[in-house]
Amino acid sequence: MSSPTVLKLGGSVVTDKDAPETVDDERLAALADAVAGHDGPLVVVHGGGSFGHHHASAHGVSRTEGSGDPAAARGIAGAMEDLNRAVVGALADAGAPAVPVHPFSLAARDADGDLSLPAGSVATMLDEGFVPVLHGDVVAHAGEGVTILSGDELVVALAASLGAERVGLCSAVPGVLDADGAVVPRIGAFDEVADALGGSDSTDVTGGMAAKVRELLALDAPAYVFDADAVAEFLAGGEPGTRID
Amino acid sequence: MSSPTVLKLGGSVVTDKDAPETVDDERLAALADAVAGHDGPLVVVHGGGSFGHHHASAHGVSRTEGSGDPAAARGIAGAMEDLNRAVVGALADAGAPAVPVHPFSLAARDADGDLSLPAGSVATMLDEGFVPVLHGDVVAHAGEGVTILSGDELVVALAASLGAERVGLCSAVPGVLDADGAVVPRIGAFDEVADALGGSDSTDVTGGMAAKVRELLALDAPAYVFDADAVAEFLAGGEPGTRID
């Protein structure tokens, strides 16, 4: 298999975060056109936005705080399947060979919280010309019931196991921003942006960007953070937003 | 993990085979009560019935004949997700800790058609007290696009990889029937029933019972074939229908 591109569509990009379980159809259709125009192996991952987060917080489930309540697992997984069907449907309408992949079916965490995500199904889909579309989900977690598996965590795991060529994160902002709100064009080491991102301590007050940058720096593939307007440029091989490498 | 029981609910048992995409709600509710009363690790697998088979034949997809058309993959997988949601919902309503597992997300076939079905997600769900509910589905198949992954094939693969204690197949008939239509109480070798099942040649004119018996004989665990009235008896440790061992 040639090395795929991994594209994350942030939950805030594909849903209306202010309205529960509402897809941003117009933006999703525009993103789908960009994805359908891509030539080459591609994996898409989308976040939960107004679908997953509501159910996750209602059930008190996070990446580390689990629940053994099957209704919590079904509620979060079901809402994310609904969103996935909307995203896969939009991609299909635009002509992309999109197929659904539900991480709760595939992944597991051990007692240390370490994720296992077998690559065989997604790799075979790619080889057969499909575009697998994964999403943030719950995951069975030894000793915890289920915990949250975020879209960002999936991107990092897939990029590593599939030997991704490039990783793109389409977010609500046009890149990683410095203290003045300007896009940082390139990050080669965490300490270059530690001050702007709130330092290197473990408390992540910036809504996940610091943790995201750290994880992306650890990948072999270059990663880019950009907004919805730059998806086509990224998929065409361009270098929009912030390059993290 | 203690050894689970694997229970297959045939597609003809949970759906009305004569009406497209129609669940047999009454029978499903009765089966769900039996499942909810079970104590101990349990995996449920259901067939496609009037959901999967229609889409599969409309797209010309079988266990060996594949399709590279993403609309075929989405159509079959989507119909089976719908049926799975109905089955998981009925089990949940009855009080079983059921959660959905979609085999298309999890499995793959290599170029020889051999199935790989990583056991980690299902095993972790079992350890956490959930009842994973899988279903017949499509599966990415090297060189073929997608082919069909039957519920029976899943049962055999899961029983082997999870070290199942017992396997039950709830079908439309009360057991494996001899040439006179009577239930054969026990099958220890294929040649005992070869005549009644249409011989040992590769053409399976009996709707799959010959192939099913052969695969079940190869398992370490005893397998039972029975009808919907006997599910509670099987789950309570009884030996209804035909024992294949």
Keywords:
about 240 residues, alpha/beta, about 35% helix, about 20% strand, eight-stranded mixed sheet, Carbamate kinase, homodimer
Report on this model:
The structure is a homodimer of 245-residue chains. By secondary structure, the first copy, chain A, is an alpha/beta fold. Chain A has a single domain (5-244), classed as 3-Layer(aba) Sandwich (Carbamate kinase). Chain A is 36% helix and 20% strand. Chain A is built from nine helices and twelve strands. The first copy, chain A, has helices spanning 11-14, 25-36, 49-58, 70-93, 103-106, 120-127, 151-162, 209-217, 231-235; strands at residues 5-9, 42-46, 98-100, 108-109, 115-116, 131-135, 137-141, 145-149, 166-171, 186-187, 223-227, 242-244. An eight-stranded mixed beta sheet of chain A has the order 3-6-2-1-9-11-12-10, sandwiched between helices. A four-stranded mixed beta sheet of chain A has the order 5-4-7-8. Mean pLDDT of chain A is 92; it is low at 200-206. Chains A and B meet through helix 4, strand 3, helix 5, strand 4 and helix 6 of A and helix 4, strand 3, helix 5, strand 4 and helix 6 of B.
In the CATH hierarchy, the architecture of chain A is 3-Layer(aba) Sandwich
The biggest sheet of chain A amounts to: 8 strands, mixed
Name of the CATH homologous superfamily of chain A:
Acetylglutamate kinase-like
**Can you tell me the CATH class of chain A?**
Alpha Beta
Q: How many H/I helices of chain A? A: 9
Mean pLDDT of chain A: 92
Element pattern of chain A in H and E = EHHEHHEHEEHEEEHEEHEHE
Global morphology of chain A? globular
**Helix fraction of chain A by DSSP (H/I, runs of at least 4):** 25-40%
Helix/strand class of chain A:
alpha/beta
Instruction: Enumerate the strands of the largest sheet of chain A in spatial order, edge to edge or round the barrel.
Output: 3-6-2-1-9-11-12-10
Give the amount of beta strand of chain A, in percent. Answer: 15-25%
Radius of gyration of chain A: 17 Å
